């Protein structure tokens, strides 16, 4: 169950990052509210995951899902650049997440 929590928390991190971008510095109400609600939910799920996962594993996977997810949202929704170096960096993050998961006892 802890892995489900950490993945869900990572997905919520992507949502709050995108909503924060859409809030234009918290000057737009709806995206600002979505940011705060999903941020709190993401932290709560991460806290639940950390009950049984090691700190380093849970936090690394959470931030990695958020980083790669935000990167993909930036490319697919916001039209950000997808050059080879950025794609390679994202691949390295995913590789690190896989290794972190494989090295975990939980």
From TrEMBL:
Cell compartment(s), UniProt: Cell membrane
Membrane topology of the entry: Multi-pass membrane protein
UniProt key word Zinc: no
Keyword annotations of the record: Cell membrane, Membrane, Transmembrane, Transmembrane helix, Transport
A cellular component annotation (GO) from this entry: plasma membrane
GO annotation terms (biological process): xenobiotic detoxification by transmembrane export across the plasma membrane
GO molecular function term, any single one: transmembrane transporter activity
Transmembrane region(s): 33-50, 57-79, 85-102
One Pfam family matching this protein: Multi_Drug_Res
Protein family membership: Belongs to the drug/metabolite transporter (DMT) superfamily. Small multidrug resistance (SMR) (TC 2.A.7.1) family. Gdx/SugE subfamily.
PANTHER family per the UniProt record, alphabetical: GUANIDINIUM EXPORTER (PTHR30561:SF0), SMR FAMILY PROTON-DEPENDENT DRUG EFFLUX TRANSPORTER SUGE (PTHR30561)
Protein name per Swiss-Prot or TrEMBL: Guanidinium exporter
Organism: Sneathiella chungangensis
Lineage: Bacteria, Pseudomonadati, Pseudomonadota, Alphaproteobacteria, Sneathiellales
Gene assigned in the entry: sugE
